[in-house]
Amino acid sequence: MEDTHTLLKLLQHATTKDKISDFLRGKDLAHSAPNWEFMISNRLSVYLEEGLITVEELINILNESEENGKQHIFFFKTDNEAYIDSLFDRETFESLLEENGLLEKYNDPEVIDIPDEATVSQIRYDENALTFKIIEGKIYQKIHRESVDGQYLTKVYKIGTERGVNVLKIHRDGLMEVRMSTRSGSATVYQTDLRNYQQMLSAVVNFMQFPIYQIKNAKEYVWKNRDDLQPEIRFTNTIVKDDFGFTVDAKAGELSNILDNDAITEGISSMLDEDAYIATQNIYFNSNEPNLPLHDVHVLMKGMGNELVIPAICSKDDYEHVIRRIRELNVETP
Questions:
Q1: 292 phi and psi angles, rounded to 5 deg
Q2: What is the pTM of this model?
Q3: CA–CA separation, 22 and 58 (whole Å)
Q4: To 10 degrees, the CA torsion angle through 118, 120, 125, 130?
Q5: CA dist 227 to 258, 259, 273, Å?
Q6: Tell me: the pLDDT tens digits for 138-181?
Q7: Beta-carbon neighbour count of residue 182 at 10 Å?
Q8: What is the dihedral of CA 97, 102, 107, 111, to 10 degrees?
């Protein structure tokens, strides 16, 4: 089955062999494998054939492995409870999907590698959320070689296409997250693609009901309450600007904390006292094992007022914990 072959290929790139082993161990199945080839041919393929595991279970692992992180997230929120109720009335929503030719994506998720154009692959209800998954091919470029000839530097770039995973998630409380896989280019690329996704789903989601949900207050709040938020949050880069064009760009190493330097901390606070503002907040939510997050989660707050960046893949639980905390910290400061 072509879909199964694609699914196994995508799992190899999206998750780890250890995670698959843990899944098989939980089912009391032989789970050791010296490499991915053995895992796929001697474990997963055999267990699928014997009915000991299901395609649906592997799709769930793939979703958790590739939908959380390495994304720009844009937030919107509606206060129209009646409209949210209509989206979560499954019978009504399924009828709407059927009318618009999308019901098969709800009943039978499509496993896609790199499509020719952005494609809705899944529509599903998660716990307290309605989720749309959009797969696309992303153009990337990286330096292939460079050379110097006298005063001239020549760089040759290799251009390719990679798989982009985008998720639009509507929560029961009215919050909409649009998680867009990171891509090359300027910030306008995200806005253009965002409009394209909205157009793709406009027949089943009324995006006019979802105004922008600003999270920019969180940038100020975490700094002004930095002492109370230790050791939960580590500050690695804070950029402060004022209306006259003055900028303070304070940086610490990845494992360091700006707060360890009193002079920098005082300089940022002094500038903020003079009506400057925080343009960029680059922070880590520190690991709090056995509580969440289990691992450090890097968060970048910059760009649009409703935009957040989580640059690296993380677990579903860690991701949801960080988003929840950002919303809790999104408090206007005096």
A1: -85, 150
A2: 0.92
A3: 13
A4: 50
A5: 12, 9, 17
A6: 887 888 899 999 999 999 988 888 899 999 999 999 999 999 99
A7: 16
A8: -150
